[in-house]
Specification:
Largest sheet: 4 strands, antiparallel
Strand order of the largest sheet: 1-3-6-5
Radius of gyration: 31 Å
Structural class: mainly beta
Helix content: 10-25%
Number of helices: 1
Low-confidence stretches: 9-21, 149-154
CATH topology of one domain: Immunoglobulin-like
Length: 154
């Protein structure tokens, strides 16, 4: 017994397979290239000059899992460290300003590179003014500064 419907199904399936293959054009699918880019989660970073670390998320889109990372334009007294995540070059930048850092606004640049590509981002770094010791009234009613023991000096 002959089943004419089966042969039509076979031909239809063959046509779908050929359409998916591309009829032998020889052109292979190639995804678009990934362009290197870098950004920070906040464009203004405030760091106190008291040795307290401030963490900044750095987002890097790259065609490879490794990139070079440099930061320029940091004021004297500010140290930095960068740690990539385990699965991609994005990571965490830690900034620390010590007491010698001059308060003010700075514009550092982060530059990343890989496979003959470079990308940069500039962000605003604000070194806040150091906090002053709490003022306490002296016994004679004039303001004074508390010393380490909590006693007010004259």
């Amino acid at each position: 017994m002959h089943h004419p419907h089966r042969s039509r199904i076979g031909v239809a399936c063959s046509g779908v397979v050929l359409a998916l293959i591309g009829c032998g054009s020889g052109a292979a699918f190639s995804p678009p290239p990934i362009n290197l880019s870098v950004s920070v989660n906040d464009t203004t970073i405030i760091v106190p000059p008291n040795g307290m670390p401030v963490n900044v998320s750095v987002i890097i889109v790259a065609p490879t899992e490794t990139t070079t990372f440099t930061i320029t334009g940091l004021p004297g007294g500010v140290s930095e460290s960068y740690k990539e995540s385990e699965s991609n070059p994005s990571g965490l930048l830690t900034l620390v300003a010590n007491a010698t850092t001059v308060p003010g606004t700075y514009m550092p640049t982060i530059t990343v590179g890989t496979l003959d590509q470079t990308a940069s981002v500039v962000f605003t770094l604000v070194i806040s003014a150091p906090t002053k010791p709490a003022q306490r009234a002296k016994q004679d009613g004039r303001p004074g500064t508390a010393n380490e023991s909590g006693l007010v000096g004259r």
